[in-house]
Amino acid sequence: MATGKFITFEGVDGAGKSTHIAAFADAVRELGKTVISTREPGGTALGEQLRNLLLHQAMHLETEALLMFAARREHLAQVIVPALARGDWVISDRFTDATFAYQGGGRGLSLDKLSQLEQWVHGDLQPDLTLLFDVPLEVARERLKNSRDLDKFEQEQEDFFVRVRQVYLQRAAQFPHRIRVIDSTRPIADISREIQQIAVDVCGV
Ligand code: TYD
What we know:
alpha/beta; five-stranded parallel beta sheet; 8 helices; 5 strands; 57% helix; 13% strand; globular; binds thymidine-5'-diphosphate
């Protein structure tokens, strides 16, 4: 029987999730699982082309949401669903919570519309676990200051990220069994330990 799990990483830009994804994937691999590491928007050849448009091209907010879900549809069909069916573990840097947070919270698109798209694109399939990296806005902004080549989203103003974070935290409160909030203001070593422990817990060792 397939025993794969679908795990997603989320958070506002600058929350520090990227640092921990690779370590989490390695930990799960070391525990004997086959891991597919992927990301959104992206994860397929078509999805990566859509990512390039989404991150750099101005567009209507509904176009943006539709393209996010179009990329996701392809990602599910080509990568996520087949991997889970094989019993592999899928670890994705962002998934649909990001659309609720960024296009819903950040851009102000109706959450109802997004729920309809979610239902259409992935019906009952939800991540088994979502790790939400959370930091106060000042910390995220400070971390982003050091990056070069900020994309379209990273260039948004502070109030955009306040709304993104709000929706992420609302969703964590709404789905407490799926979404685990990681306080990402702590030292990296502490977070790494927590992440390793979560890997052990979810692998059922
Ligand atoms: P990100 O995951 O932060 O990658 P990097 O670490 O390379 O910058 O970048 C993806 C951006 O796309 C991020 O700003 C959030 C945004 N995004 C959405 O707005 N909606 C979505 O549904 C997804 C998946 C991402």
